[in-house]
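FAQ

Q: What does a record look like?
A: Structure on top, sequence underneath. For example:
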């Protein structure tokens, strides 16, 4: 549960909760607005493992640490990963508060999570042609339609941060094919793919960059926009988990 999805944790029943700090080898989240708990329980009739708070490369963690929880998910038999994040919108048709189903990503992180000896969960050279599961995207579209939610599709550009982009950078990432830009998700999705875990991701567009009038962006604004979008994001994810 990245930015914009914290609310979902209150709906988990039959839960066991662990503070990240009490789990051997687990990193601890340092960013305001990201708690640090691993929750096991049920959502609807599905067994789930939820991460409340994730680890970002900009915090100083290695890529191995950032993606360690996904390795744990694999070992525990998790079949589908649902990810959320906050992102800056670069597609001129986007507005603040929009939800964007991630259809694909572009990896701009300076380090690769699969760098080093290959893990036996997947091949040395993993295929990435469907990193975000087509059936799950279709399911999300149906759910959004049923609920009258206007949902966008787009390509998520993953960058290291922690600076937000300069206007020129937003424009560049858009020219290169990105619709939104953010500082997470891509490493976890790569490792999930390498483990054969299906992925579905949504970004909440919390700010806009790259247009003619550059605007200032702050962490507080990002949090505020994400909180506003939270009920809709929660409704979609809840339904996705139920029906997938
Ligand atoms: N850029 C990078 N990361 C972000 C942004 C942004 O504009 N908004 C939220 N996370």
């Amino acid at each position: 549960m990245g930015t914009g999805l914290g609310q979902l944790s209150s709906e988990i029943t039959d839960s066991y909760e662990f503070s990240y700090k009490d789990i051997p080898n687990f990193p601890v989240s340092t960013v305001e607005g990201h708690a640090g708990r691993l929750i096991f329980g049920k959502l609807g009739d599905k067994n789930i493992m939820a991460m409340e708070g994730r680890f970002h490369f900009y915090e100083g963690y290695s890529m191995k640490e950032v993606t360690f929880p996904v390795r744990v998910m694999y070992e525990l038999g998790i079949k589908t990963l649902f990810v959320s994040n906050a992102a800056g919108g670069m597609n001129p048709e986007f507005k603040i508060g929009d939800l964007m189903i991630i259809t694909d990503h572009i990896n701009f992180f300076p380090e690769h999570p699969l760098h080093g000896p290959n893990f036996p969960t997947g091949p040395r050279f993993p295929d990435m042609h469907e990193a975000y599961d087509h059936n799950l995207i279709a399911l999300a579209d149906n759910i959004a339609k049923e609920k009258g939610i206007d949902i966008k599709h787009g390509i998520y550009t993953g960058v290291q941060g922690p600076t937000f982009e300069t206007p020129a950078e937003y424009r560049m990432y858009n020219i290169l094919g990105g619709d939104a830009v953010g500082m997470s998700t891509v490493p976890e999705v790569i490792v999930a793919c390498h483990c054969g875990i299906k992925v579905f991701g949504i970004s909440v567009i919390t700010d806009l960059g790259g247009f003619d009038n550059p605007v200032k962006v702050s962490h507080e604004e990002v949090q505020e926009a994400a909180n506003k979008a939270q009920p809709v994001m929660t409704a979609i994810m809840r339904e996705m988990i139920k029906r997938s």
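Q: Is there anything notable about this one?
A: The chain has one domain: 6-243.
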